[in-house]
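Slide 14.
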Amino acid sequence: MAEAHWYVAHTYSGYENKVKANIDKTVENRHLEEQILEVRVPMQDVTELKNGVRKQVSKKMFPGYVLINMIMNDDTWYVVRNTRGVTGFVGPGSKPVPLSEMEMRSLGIRTDAPIEVDFDEGDTVSVIGGVWKDTTGIITAMNHGKQTVTINVEMFGRETPVEISFADVKKL
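Slide 15: predicted structure.
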């Protein structure tokens, strides 16, 4: 199987989140989860000073661009290229160029080897890090591409699905 790389898609400015949502929906509908692994709109926290008041806000690092971790083939190229709001890939002509390791590191995106796990769907796990620390739940889904598990946690008297990184989960 081919290896996944990070590519940059150019979008209409202001449409980055819509493009991300549209690609995610298409991936789900066409069952391309194993080929298009992740879509990101890189954000950074900045402090704005308005009317003498400091305010912490998240802003897009690259307005007009979306990062996509995918295996490049005719199907994935077609899906991304024909998503409403996408004007094309970054690269010469119509040939997308993947980002290098150094470019990915400067963006703060890990390209480490995948984490090997000893749990599977249906197992009970404990969350050992992040916002849901000290929570337990049963794994309902696993996404090896994104290195995440989905567990149900009880919130406001209801079962609510939560996506958590493999690194933040321990089997009970």
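Speaker note: DSSP finds three helices and eleven strands in the chain.
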